[in-house]
Amino acid sequence: MKEQADTTTAESPPPLWKVRMPFWHRVDCFIRLWLLKSLAAIYFYCRRLVRQPPRRYQPTFVRRYPSRPMLNTRIFFPPNYRAGERLPLYLNIHGGGFAVGDAQVDDRFCVAWAGRTGMLVVSLDYRRVPRHPFPTATYDLVAQIKDVLADESLPIDPERITIGGFSAGGNLALSVSQLPPLHGRVKAAVVYYPIVDFGHPPPVKLASRPYTDGPLDKIGMMAWALDWGYVYLPPRIYMIAAQWDMLRLEGQQMIHRLAGLHDKEDQEAPFETSAYKWTLARGCTHGFTHGFTHGQEGNAAERTYRKKVCEDIYGQAHEWLKSVLA
């Protein structure tokens, strides 16, 4: 059975169609999601209460725009910004299985990215499942991005707009780039271990991981959450996947197909064409950029290795975006 998905405002694009899942599956997902959201909310609240982030890891300022006054938009200026100059824009979208987390979880990345690239970084939030199912998050993001681009107080170069995200945020980055208000304006996307295949259930994805003998990717434990909840993609895409990630294969196949390398979909070696770039983070699981899957701390060797991998990939992403926007 199919039903039309609710839109969130009168200005939203025409409603999309979605397949309605069996009733008891929806009940099961709903209960698990609320339990997960409650535990995550308690965890983040306690962590932020006990360990307030240093000022250097906080946004330059936070705004709420008229289209979505319930959502915070976190804005990060590069430290070398000079008044009057126009900056390339990087729109960041956080992950969390479309269900948990908020834009604040990416603050450290956004501060570092603004400092590394000299870009104006805008970190966006969105309403999450199960209370706000697809396509609410997509429309929330599109509305905020329209407000950001119309904000004359921000020194945005309209010819150098890019977007990126982690996991579910990577999916949303590719999603919002295709809608009419943004199509053609986003020059490039950098997506980290995105969810791009909803055609196969989580058990199939887990069983088809290329490295089933590697460490168990903990995203598999909450893959059921993804059950809840592309034609005009950006002209240039850099996709990063993790070697032991359940989502790795779908990202690998997608980027090879986009690049016209259909006969090499099973090859994990890095490649770069004029429009597409692919990198596999070896020895890593889903969420390696944030340290979530092995625990925020991990042992010293894991932290050192993860930091080295992230530094290398962020460096590649920076150089790639510089060439794209040149």
UniProtKB/TrEMBL annotation:
Residues 91-228 form the Alpha/beta hydrolase fold-3 domain. It comes from Aspergillus vadensis (strain CBS 113365 / IMI 142717 / IBT 24658). The keyword DNA damage does not apply. The keyword Hydrolase applies. Keywords: Hydrolase. One of its GO terms (molecular function) is hydrolase activity. This is Alpha/beta hydrolase fold protein. PANTHER family: AB HYDROLASE SUPERFAMILY PROTEIN C4A8.06C, ALPHA_BETA HYDROLASE FOLD-3 DOMAIN-CONTAINING PROTEIN-RELATED. It holds the Pfam family Abhydrolase_3. It comes from the Eukaryota. SUPFAM superfamilies: alpha/beta-Hydrolases (SSF53474).
